[in-house]
Design a protein that fits this description.
mainly alpha; 0% strand; elongated
Amino acid sequence: MPSIAQQIPNFNLKIVFLVHFIFISLSCMGFWSSNAYLFYNGILMFLLLWSIFNAQSQEPLQMAIVVNGTSIILDILLLILNFPSNNSVAGPKFSAAMAILHLLTRPMSTFVLIRNLEERGGNPGNISSMFTGTRTESYEDIDRTAAPQSSAQSGGYNFATAQPI
């Protein structure tokens, strides 16, 4: 009997989405964070949903990896600049603590996203060429014609391949 992870398509992405959704919801309960926190996390949620629904494409996963990695730095800056003061009530402190836990889960979710990208046909173990790799979709350039061979290269006229008039 197959496990639940094998029965549900994109199981790992759905777990990553659910974890981020819970932490973002809990982190936005306090009024300590600015709208920027909701903005870049909303973009991450959109990219995760896009990668769940478009299981063949690598682009949404690549962008989710970049946004999630950038969010680590943005979370640190936001926590440094807007952390609730000591005399504030428990609500903002709780939401800031959830933002810290969310920050700690981001490297793990980035690792899961990279593994999922590799399963979709990305370069395994080579993160630096993530955006320069070749596309997996077949593409035929119909505008490009074959270069004609000159008679100097073929050694003159070839009667075997000549077409009748």
